[in-house]
Amino acid sequence: MARTNTVVRTLHDAGLAAWFGGTLMGAVGVNGAADDVHDSTERLRVANAGWARWAPVNAVAIGAHLVGGIGLLRANADRARTEPGVKAASIVKSVVTGAAVAATAYAGVLGTQTAKGEGHPARGGVTPAAGTPSAAADAQRKLKVVQWVIPALTGVLVVLSAQQGEQQRPVGQVEAWVNRLAN
Question: Which of 29, 65, 169, 174 could form a disulfide with 15 if both were Cys (CB 3.0 to 4.6 A apart)?
Answer without folding.
Answer: 65
